[in-house]
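Case study B.
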Amino acid sequence: MEKIGILTCLHSNDVCARVGCLSSFWRRKDFFAKYAENTILAAMLTCNGCKGDNPSEPEEDKGILEKLDRLVSEEVKTVHVGVCRLIEDKKECPRMTKICEMIESRGIQVIRGTHRE
Ligand code: SF4
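Model:
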């Protein structure tokens, strides 16, 4: 039984109910196609917001550090990152990139993608 999580942009909360990510997971399609039926979606987390709203960089943000500790203690093996990681010109938001690096440094695999973009 494998545990996975989904990481999304805090700002996208304003307009997104996570339906695309969740339905792809329940249907085991798109980036979730490889998972067995008994895979558990064990965690949903967001970034710590844009610099203008939250000056704390992810490495020093207590909330982010606590969330990543929780992923480790829950033995989450993989975190998928939503399309909301992409900002202008379809470039990845630098805060998202940093958080992905922090997740990987804790031994958790990061996969960029949830549903088809
Ligand atoms: S820092 Fe990036 S990922 Fe986070 S809310 Fe802002 S745009 Fe979204």
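The chain has one domain: 3-112. The remaining cases will be described in the next quarterly update.
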